[in-house]
């Protein structure tokens, strides 16, 4: 975009004119700071740092970060990781620590601008390297962008800050409800609410697990039948002998994830599926297996493997069918609330994205 094509009050600026690069090195073993932020602690498209480590977790020089400074993931920029520090801390050397140049930009506006597609796409484009593409400050500081004047920054910042507050509240509500779901799921699949409706059983007496079937990629014909492996959906096929409802979990490789479908499906040989529910509620069986923490029963070091006979032999408490139905209704009600919140959050993120792209 040329100067002549810019909206009134906008101008072309070099990134180095609106941002300063801060590169102060710190040895984790020598700092008094208590917080370490790695790229793994940053969520894509979120300015809030929701988790962190401690300096003793890491070795080698890291970067000093002051409260309010921006942590930007310079390695693999396509992950869209940029956040604002809520405290003094140290961070990964694979990040870039930045702060606003207040003469040319409102400090609080800069991180929002960095979340825009225009900035992120440019960051990806100027990254160097194939395995772990990384941005150099000397390259980034020379990049030019169309940028709003201070009055427009203030207007956009007011809207974006309000929207960010609502997003954080929505996200926090989702996190709290998800934690609540995990807790009541565990309670209602392990602790009897009514002892009369529960009995001690071996798992083989209430449902039967079976190894899935081989289906090489070259033999697959595109269709409506979902193929499940140990890690979830693995493709589609045009036929199967396994009807829904179905509960599938990993047998080899990824152990512990549990999947549910009400349609016909193809379980691969890397999975176990419930061949016979023996009159029990399939969705309850799914919740039950999730809470069993199946990875605890895996054997093998290189490629973890789950033996169905080991699971069949486990003794557990088991509720009556009517109690299962009540538990499933409760848990599905919470899941629907979470799904509604997630849709609301997605809608808010889309509004934010549209605003960010107008601001860049």
UniProtKB/TrEMBL annotation:
InterPro entries: Restrct_endonuc_typeI_TRD, Restrct_endonuc_typeI_TRD_sf, Type-I_RS_S_subunit
CDD domains, per database record: RMtype1_S_EcoAO83I-TRD1-CR1_like, RMtype1_S_TRD-CR_like
A Pfam family the protein falls into: Methylase_S
Residue intervals of the Type I restriction modification DNA specificity domain: 7-165, 196-348
GO MF entry, a single one: DNA binding
Record keywords, A-Z: DNA-binding, Restriction system
Domain of life: Bacteria
Residues forming coiled coils: none
BP GO annotations: DNA restriction-modification system
Family recorded in the similarity comment: Belongs to the type-I restriction system S methylase family.
Record-given protein name: Type I restriction modification DNA specificity domain-containing protein
